[in-house]
Design a protein that fits this description.
Layout lengths: L2 H8 L2 H26 L4 H55 L1 H24 L7 H17 L1
């Protein structure tokens, strides 16, 4: 027993009328949807791609520029690392060729540093306060001479 036979068996005129109206509206909707698909859309689609196309190009150019900048940065970084490694290798080679002069230059630098530290420690006052200390010394000399 199919669907139509069931409806005929019920013999309810209100249900039959409602289903008939529903079927007619679905058929009309399908026909109008088919007719709408056959007509090309022109006005709404014409305005939309202009800004999307511009935004797409702008985003594409930004990505391309960023990738080129990143590649250039990476290349420059590798060149700088290679230059530093070459300088360190040259310094190590020079130290191996003449280890005594390398040691003496380091010890001279150490001696200079220790001399600077010794002179800073042996001062009575820090260098920034020396004018104040001189004023105090001259004031004490004046007071001692008048008494």
């Amino acid at each position: 027993m199919n669907w139509n036979d069931r409806l005929a068996a019920e013999d309810d005129p209100e249900v039959m009328q409602a289903l008939g109206n529903f079927k007619a509206s679905v058929d009309a909707w399908c026909e109008s949807a088919g007719a709408a698909r056959s007509h090309p859309r022109s006005a709404p689609n014409a305005a939309r791609p202009v800004w999307r196309l511009a935004a797409g190009w702008a985003l594409g150019c930004a990505v391309a520029a960023a990738s080129v900048a990143g590649a250039l940065y990476e290349r420059q970084h590798k060149q700088e690392l290679a230059r530093i490694a070459a300088a360190q290798a040259a310094a190590q080679k020079a130290a191996q060729v003449n280890p005594v002069s390398g040691q003496s230059s380091k010890s001279e630098a150490d001696q200079d540093l220790l001399a600077n530290v010794d002179s800073d420690i042996s001062r009575a006052v820090p260098a920034a306060m020396e004018p104040l200390a001189q004023m105090m010394d001259s004031g004490q000399a004046d007071n001692n001479g008048t008494k």
